[in-house]
Amino acid sequence: MNMYNVDLDKCEANYQPLTPIQFLHRSADVFPERTAVIYRDRKYTWSEYSERCHKLARALIATGIGRGDTVSIMAANIPAMAEAAFGVPMSGAVLNCINIRLDAASVAFILKHSEAKVFFVDQQFASVAKAAIAQAGLEDVRVIDIADPLIQCPEMVGDIEYEDYIAAAPGDIAIVYPEDEWDAIALNYTSGTTGDPKGVVYHHRGAYLNALGQVINANFLGKVPVYLWTLPLFHCNGWCFAWAVAAIGGTNVCLRKAAAEDIFEAIAAHQVTHFCCAPTILDFMIAGKPDGWKNPAEPVKVLCAGASPPVATLKKSMAIGLDVVHVYGMTEQHGVATICEPQASWAELDPEQQIRQIGRQGVRSVVTDQMAVCSPDTYEEVPRDGSTIGEVMIRGNIAMKGYLKNPKATQAAFRNGWYHTGDLAVVHEDGYIEIKDRSKDLIISGGENISSIEVEDVLYAYPGVVGAAVVAVPDEKWGEVPCAVVELSPAHQAVVTEQDIIEHCRAHLAGFKTPKHVIFEPLIRTATGKLQKFKLRTHATDVVSSRGKPR
Question: CA torsion angle for 54, 57, 59, 61 (degrees, to 10)?
């Protein structure tokens, strides 16, 4: 036996399960008077924020919530959403943040599939939430309304408002810590490539590690960061940044809507140092820069993910005082897995080439153990030639536990000891990867995932549609948007219009999933009846670009 394994056992003194809950406790102890949360005219210190999170946890426990229960929340980036990041796990429950852009049917599926016991509802989304609860048939779910003076809601969805709920929390209930760092902390649904979303299960270990990774990725060290919530907290739990800000004792600036005017106002009013976003937000800011805008003394650090920002967007972002760093990841990896780490040698390049370097997906983050671009058949790594394409594969401690109630999908995602991203990339000579295409038919519009199959199912329900395919086409505002290629029966070819199709989809889908373009033509299939969507994407892009701007 190895001598280092003799009488050197784990014990309570030398081993504790990793959990981001500890970050909240430390900041409350070390920085009790430092501002933790700002939302309009409301401010909470770390001591106050911690107490509110504890009240939420105790209220949930008093409600009957315990280990393994699911607590859902559908809210904008408001204080209650930030409090849920700690309050729900401290009750022992699993936090399920629901995309506020989803329609009632999608929310109903999530509530039912996750077996939600409690549902917090921002009153801005009351009508969708109420319809979802009815569709899910969840008469027993406890609903708590989150009121906001900005939102005028004529009626309650539940029977109690959030502030009253946490105010009534007993003071003598102990919070719950994970028994094992592999315990679930959060549940995030991703559309993937099928109509029904998959539930990605996060663990305390991954949340802890990726939060510390984000401290490094965002370069939080050296000053007190003021983090602006332009990234939705429902998206991969805000890429773990609620936990990252707590780890460093920074300040969260909540923002109900990521509009250019509100972002610029917050940067100026609160001396914002950091935010995260999809490229769409950069475009919003460039177009909406206020007259007389003065760049901050130090550029605002921005972590940007999604489709690579165009060179023109990066140039204009720099001009308005932003320092953009491109990152890449996915829900299944707790948010961010790679970062385009700047290199000193890039300063020798001409400005255009420097910006092109910045737009790549980069190298593995400090907490991403291994990343490779391989042949999906042989698992051999592609050469660093910038042209040979392979699939991006990742392994390490920030990977999800798996997909809830979906062992087949979990096994497929983790086959042969790697997480298969489904994204196709090249590797440059310096080891930096660059995404070239997606093996999945997923559309990412403004940072939101859209299942092409889900949209196609709606299209097929329209009278006269005998064939339908949905692909991504480039869009200046959203990065890419859905384009529907529709084949009509002869009797309908002179009757059905593009607007008819769009209105039909809008009535059955969330707005961002609705096709922005429709092309009417026969679908070309292979001898086995399959669509070659990579060819269809190229064709649709050519057709749409020849038309000009979308309607």
Answer: -140
- What does the alpha-carbon distance between residue 508 and residue 265 come to, in Å, rounded to a whole number? 36
Q: Which two tokens stand for residue 359?
A: 């737009």
Contact between 90 and 53 (Cβ < 8 Å): yes
Q: Which of 143, 145, 142 is nearest to 162 (CA)?
A: 145
**Is residue 237 a contact partner of residue 20, using CB atoms and an 8 Å limit?**
no
pTM: 0.84
What contacts 24+ positions apart, CB below 8 Å, involve 200-204? 200/331, 200/332, 200/400, 200/403, 200/404, 201/94, 201/400, 201/401, 201/402, 201/403, 201/404, 202/237, 202/334, 202/400, 202/401, 203/400, 203/401, 204/17, 204/18, 204/19, 204/20, 204/21, 204/89, 204/178
For residues 110, 515, 529, 542, the Cα torsion angle rounded to the nearest 10 degrees is -140
Whole-number Å distance between alpha carbons of 418 and 315: 36
**Considering only CA atoms, which of 43, 204, 196 is closest in space to residue 108?**
196
Placement of tokens 């805008």 in the chain: 293
The predicted-structure confidence for 215-233, as pLDDT tens digits, reads as follows: 999 999 988 999 999 999 9
For the ranges 7-16, 191-200, 464-473, the maximum mean pLDDT occurs at 7-16
- Name 187's bridge partners: 201
Concatenate the DSSP letters of all residues of 330-351 into one string: EGGGTEEEEE----GGGGGS-H
Give whole-number Cα distances, 328 to 108, 184, 217, 321, 477, in Å: 30, 23, 12, 22, 20
**Domains located in the chain, CATH noted:** 21-277 (3.40.50.12780), 442-547 (3.30.300.30)
Average pLDDT over residues 437-457: 76
Band (pLDDT 50/70/90 cuts) for residue 377 is confident
Please provide the size of the chain in residues.
Answer: 551
Read off the tokens for 96: 């399920």
**H or E element in which residue 117 lies:** strand 116-122
Nearest in space to 83 (alpha carbons), one of 254, 258, 273, 256 = 254
Cα 339 from Cα 304, distance rounded (Å): 10
- Cα angle: 350, vertex 365, 35; to 5 degrees: 100
Residue ranges of the alpha helices (H) in 98-203?
A: 104-114, 126-136, 162-167
DSSP alpha helix (H) spans, 464-511: 498-508
Q: How far apart are CA 448 and CA 446, in angstroms?
A: 6
CA distance 366 to 415: 24
For residues 222 and 249, the answer to whether their CB atoms sit within 8 Å is no
* Cβ 455 vs Cβ 516: under 8 Å: no
d(CA 204, CA 20): 7
